[in-house]
Write a structure and sequence with these properties.
The complex is a heterodimer of chains A (about 280) and B (about 350). In chain A, about 40% of the residues lie in helices and about 10% in strands. With about 280 residues, chain A is an alpha/beta fold. Chain A has one domain (about 15-280): Thiamin diphosphate (ThDP)-binding fold, Pyr/PP domains (Rossmann fold). A five-stranded parallel β-sheet of chain A has the order 1-2-3-5-4, sandwiched between helices. Chain B has two domains: about 35-200, Rossmann fold, CATH 3.40.50.970; about 215-340, Rossmann fold. In chain B, about 35% of the residues lie in helices and about 20% in strands. Chain B has helices at about 40-50, 70-75, 85-100, 110-115, 115-125, 155-160, 170-185, 200-205, 230-245, 265-270, 290-300, 320-325, 330-340; strands at about 35-40, 55-60, 80, 100-110, 130-135, 165, 190, 195-200, 215-220, 225-230, 250-255, 255-260, 275-285, 305-310. In chain B, the strands form three sheets. Chain B has a seven-stranded mixed β-sheet, sandwiched between helices. In chain B, helix 1 runs parallel beside helix 7, helix 3 (about 85-100) runs parallel beside helix 5 and helix 9 (about 230-245) crosses helix 13 (about 330-340). Chain B is globular, with a radius of gyration of 20 Å. In chain B, about 50% of the residues are buried. Classes of the chains: A alpha/beta (about 280), B alpha/beta (about 350).
Chain lengths: ~280, ~350
């Protein structure tokens, strides 16, 4: 069902090529600003490629098409990654790439619903996306819509109590049209997420809350695709979660090897070098 | 070691000769001499929802205590029990609004204003969504102490862009506000009186009707102008009746919409020659109606003699509500007494 509306408009690229394009666009935006959450963007690129070019149904020319699957970016600072995929999907014009983070840009540093086509919610106050997704999933069921609500959140948001209020609520209201995607890169502002709050066995925790839960390598495209398919097609009335273990800075080995922090420092001359390294690895 | 602030708990107490029951949380607000209406919010919402399929109701385990149970019983498939979880109550309301519905979410004013504030600010107000947050136990309407007394909710929400704020006075205000806030395209925070709610304003002014965003004179008076909101308009009207016996002529301007404030009407009335202007609100004197009126008048160069009636900048005592209303100056007698003292 996905992408049927895009036939003939967007060249037929593989998911690996889409992910590569997303990484490239994110690096170009990072270069414009000289900063950005590039570590997260490179890490989540494969998940976004599989979501937008395999799982989601949408119409690039009509971002608010009623039948679309909703994709919520709870983690507002991942906006650089979402802008990249929205451009790749034809929802945002690519010629605005160089406005990223500038005055009057439609692509502010933290994602907001009122700025950007394809940005469903204002994220950034972490722990809010899943609750909003619960309400949207309730609303879609009231309208008897077959659309799904996807909420992309971070491992750090597992520390917010509101996440677990929403998790219980989704089960209580049998929201089988809700798919939560957790980017588990084990990195938050002060260091490793797993060193900040004892989140325990995260998959078992979601299962104990009543969710259909999977955990896969978020940089293994076939595994990501299979997990998205399993989440969409699960037969029961549970909400679904996929925890994606991802590698920060994936695709640019010299950045991957750097001491990883929440805000990866990239020197001015390194943006070009990172793009060059990426160029060498274009997937065939 | 006993902290000074806690030392009072070690002072033994005597059993009083006259026993006064503390007000239970489900207790209706007493107003002597007025007829009452049962659950005006719940019934008005059912009427409104029959005409508008977009309306849904949500509560965080307080439907019975916010009169939303009337709606839940009448339209069970349009009611969501969200459990004791105010953050998802609000964010789910935002999601429903985003999908084209008009959610009415209810809880106590303390929980909405304190616990769920960030969710109201970012998920609802920042995106100007038409979610309606309806909250019982505003200001000092329970004797349960600060955990349940929302004495600063108006101050909190006044600072929030896009938010419309209503403090209705009586059953008629509540019944008439429901369809108007449902029709309003943005977010609304409304304080709620629930249970048996007195019908007051039309007794004093039969043709009075709540109008969103409008302040209205309920009675005229030459000596004093009371500018009041919420249940303090009841107190002001009764105090005005009492003061009339002392040949003090008190006018009462009722301001149920706190934001946006009807500055034109307030300024026009306050500018009318020589009256003492007194604001009255069931809220801390910090950041509520009084300061809003003072700021509006001063910036327009209108500077009458000005006094404020409201709750002090304190965490309030627990106890019986009539005692507390006397203690903190919200009772009819205290309002009349203070106005006399200022003349």
């Amino acid at each position: 069902m996905a992408m049927t509306t895009q036939a003939g408009r967007i060249p037929n690229l593989s998911l690996a090529q889409r992910a590569w394009n997303i990484r490239r666009k994110a690096l170009l935006m990072g270069e414009v600003q000289g900063q950005g959450y590039i570590g997260q963007a490179l890490g989540i690129a494969d998940v976004l490629a599989a979501a937008y070019f395999h799982a989601l149904d949408y119409r690039p020319e009509d971002p608010e098409w009623e039948g679309r699957d909703r994709f919520l970016l709870s983690i507002g600072h991942y906006a650089i990654a979402l802008y990249a995929v929205l451009m790749e999907a034809g929802i945002l014009p690519e010629n605005e790439l160089e406005t990223y983070g500038m005055d009057d840009s439609r692509m502010p540093m933290s994602g907001m619903a009122s700025y950007t086509p394809g940005m469903e919610i204002t994220g950034g106050s972490l722990g809010q996306g899943l609750g909003i997704a619960v309400g949207m999933a309730m609303g879609l069921k009231r309208k008897r819509s077959p659309a799904f609500v996807y909420n992309l959140m971070s491992d750090g948001e597992l520390g917010e109590g509101s996440t677990w209020e929403a998790a219980m609520s989704a089960v209580q209201h049998r929201l089988d049209n809700l798919i939560c995607l957790v980017d588990f890169n084990d990195q938050q502002a002060d260091g490793k997420s797993t060193a900040a709050l004892a989140t325990g066995d995260e998959r078992a925790k979601w299962e104990a809350f009543g969710w259909h839960a999977q955990r896969v390598n978020g940089n293994d495209l076939p595994a990501v695709v299979a997990a998205l398919d399993a989440a969409r097609n699960a037969p029961d009335t549970q909400p679904r979660v996929i925890i994606f273990d991802t590698t920060m800075c994936k695709g640019v080995p010299f950045l991957e090897a750097r001491e990883i922090t929440h805000f990866v420092r990239v020197e001015p001359d390194e943006w070009g070098r990172a793009l060059a390294v990426l160029e060498e690895g274009y997937p065939q | 070691m006993t902290l000074n602030s806690l030392a009072r708990k070690y002072e033994p107490r005597k059993v009083p000769e006259t026993k006064v029951a503390t007000s239970a949380m489900i207790a209706s607000l007493a107003a002597e001499g007025y007829d009452t209406v049962a659950a005006p919010f719940g019934h008005a919402l059912v009427d409104c929802a029959r005409k508008d399929e977009r309306i849904v109701g949500l509560s965080a385990d307080l439907s019975k205590y916010t009169d939303l149970h009337i709606f839940a019983q009448a339209m069970p498939d349009r009611f969501y029990q969200m459990g004791m979880a105010e953050q998802v109550l609000i964010s789910a309301a935002a999601g429903l609004a985003r999908e084209g519905f008009i959610p009415f979410a209810t809880t106590y004013a303390v929980f909405a204003s304190r616990r769920a504030y960030d969710f109201i600010a970012m998920a609802i107000a920042e995106e100007n969504l038409p979610a309606k947050i309806i909250c019982a136990l505003p200001g000092l309407t329970t004797g349960y102490g600060p955990s349940h007394q929302a004495t600063e909710d108006l101050a909190i929400f006044r600072g929030l862009p896009n938010m419309t704020i209503i403090d209705p006075c009586d059953a008629d205000d509540i019944a008439d506000m429901v369809p108007q806030i449902a029709a309003h395209p943005g977010p609304v925070y409304a304080r709620l009186l629930r249970g048996k709610v007195p019908s007051v304003l039309r007794r004093h002014k039969p043709d009075y009707r709540f109008q969103l965003g409008r302040a209205q004179m309920i009675r005229d008076g030459r000596d004093v102008l009371v500018i009041s909101t919420g249940l303090m308009t009841m107190r002001a009207l009764d105090a005005a009746t009492a003061l009339a016996g002392d040949k003090v002529d008190v006018g009462v301007l009722h301001v149920p919409t706190i934001k946006p404030l009807d500055v034109e009407t307030i300024a026009a009335e306050a500018a009318k020659g020589g009256r003492l202007v007194v604001t009255a609100e069931n809220h801390t004197v910090i950041g509520g109606l009084g300061e809003a009126v003072a700021g509006a008048l001063l910036t327009r160069g209108i500077a009458p003699r000005f006094r404020m009636i409201g709750l002090p900048d304190e965490f309030l005592e627990a106890g019986a509500l009539p005692t507390l209303h006397d203690m903190y100056g919200l009772s009819v007698n205290k309002v009349a007494e203070r106005i006399r003292g200022w003349l």
